[in-house]
Amino acid sequence: MPAKGAHVDVIVGGGVVGLSVAWRTARAGRPVTVVDPAPGRGASYAAAGMLAPVSEVTYTEGPLLRLGVASLRRWPAFAAELAADAGFPPADADPGVGSGGGLGFADVRALDLRADGTLDVAFGADDMEALGELAAYMEKLGLPVERLTGRECRRLEPMLAPSVRGGLLAPGDAWVDPRRVTAALLVALERLGVPVVRARATELLREGDRVAGVRLAPPAAEDGSDHHDLPGELRGERVVLAAGAWSAELAEVPVRPVKGQIMRLRSPQPLLGRCVRGTVHGSSVYLVPRGDGELVVGATQEEMGFDTRVTAGGLWELLRDARELVPGVTELEVADVVAGLRPGTPDNLPLIGPSGTPGLVYATGHHRGGVLLAPLTTAILLGEESELAALCTPGRFREIS
Questions:
Q1: 1-114+172-255+346-401 belongs to which homologous superfamily?
Q2: In the β-sheet with 283-289, what is the strand arrangement from edge to edge?
Q3: In the prediction, which pLDDT does 221 show?
Q4: What angle do CA 375, 380, 384 make, to 5 degrees?
Q5: Residues 97-129: pLDDT tens digits?
Q6: What is the pLDDT of residues 225-240, one digit of tens each?
Q7: The pLDDT of residue 180
Q8: Mean pLDDT, to the nearest integer, of 34-60?
C-alpha cells in the first residue's frame, strides 16, 4: 500500500478501462492504486473485443465514430507497449495467435490482436437496400468500405450461408481478446508495483467540497471471515471513477446497466477468418473468431437492470441468428456462456474527464466501446488528447458530482 499521506490516484474499477488508466498513469510516473473486488471479471470478461468503429457506425452516432476511429489508431502502440510491459516474448520467439493485419501490430500476438476486417452481410432485398444506404453514408464520410456480392462474400468466408446476398467489408476493423488484455494489464501493473486492492468501494470520502478517497467494504473470505488486513478507506489526491455500470452507486452519473449475453463456441478448425455480422430477425448478431479456434457469438442488448442471469431465451436467440449467418455453428462445442453489464449513457458517449467536483474524475459510460476506447480514454485523462475530449466531457449533461 502507498505510504500514509502519499498523493496517489485511486482508480475505482478493474475492467479494461480502469486497468488501462492505472497502467498508463503509473507509466507516466504517478503513484496509483486500483480498487476492485474482482479485477477483469466484469463487462470486460464478457466482451467480444471488437475494435470496429466503421462497421458499427450508425446514422445518429457521428461523435462516437470519431472517438472510435481515433482510438483504433492508438491501439497498435498501446498494445505493443502493453505486451512489452507484461513481459510477453517478441513475435519471432513465440508464434502465438493472431495476424496483426494492416494496422502494423507487432509483438502482440499473445493478446490475440488482429486486424483482418469486419464483414457485414445481408439476406433479403430489404436487407440489401438498407446495407446499400449505409454504404453510401459510410462513403460520404470517407470511411474505407467495400461493397461485395454474395459470391464475393462467400469467397472471403466460405462457411457463410448460401442465402447471403451481399455485404460490406470494413477492412480496417480489428479485434482483440479482452480477457487476455485485462490479464496482461494486471501483470503489467504488478511489474510496475501498482497495488490492486480487491475490495468494493462503497462510498466517496469527502473533505469539504472535494473528494478525497473511497471507503471500502472488504470481501468475505471463502471460510466466512473478513480480510481485516485491508484498510477501511483509501485516500488519494484524485479518484478516477471507472466502475462501469456500477458508477452510479458512487456518484450521480447518468450511467445505467445494459445487459449483454454472449457465447463462446469451440471448434477444432476455425470457421471464420474475420468478424462477421448481420441483422437477423431485426436484431444484430456478430461472430468473432479467436486464434485458438474459439468463436464468440454475441450479443443481446437488454434493459434489465443489474440482472446477470444467462437465460435460455437469450442463448436461443444468439444461436438462431448466428445459424442464419454461419450454419455450421450448431455443430460446435459450447465453451462458455456469460452475461455482462455494459455502462450505457443517454447519448451512448462515454464520460471522460473532470466531474465538476474537485478530486473526482470520470472514466465511465463506454457502453459497447470500452475495449475499443481504452487507449483514447487514457490519452484524454493524461492530457494527450484535447480536441476529442470535449465530446466526452461530463459537463454536457446537467451538473453531476
A1: FAD/NAD(P)-binding domain (3.50.50.60)
A2: 146-149, 166-170, 118-122, 275-280, 283-289, 294-298, 256-266, 333-344
A3: 55
A4: 90
A5: 334 444 344 445 688 999 999 999 998 788 888
A6: 445 566 789 999 999 9
A7: 95
A8: 93
C-alpha cell at 359: 478530486
The answer to whether the CB of 190 falls within 8 A of the CB of 182 is no
Give the mean pLDDT of the chain: 89
User: On the CB side of 70, how many CA atoms lie within 13 Å of its CA?
Assistant: 18
pLDDT for position 22: 98
Mean pLDDT of 321-346: 95
Q: Residue-wise over 68-82: b if at least 16 C-beta within 10 A, else e?
A: bbbbbebbbebbbbb
CA distance 323 to 316: 10
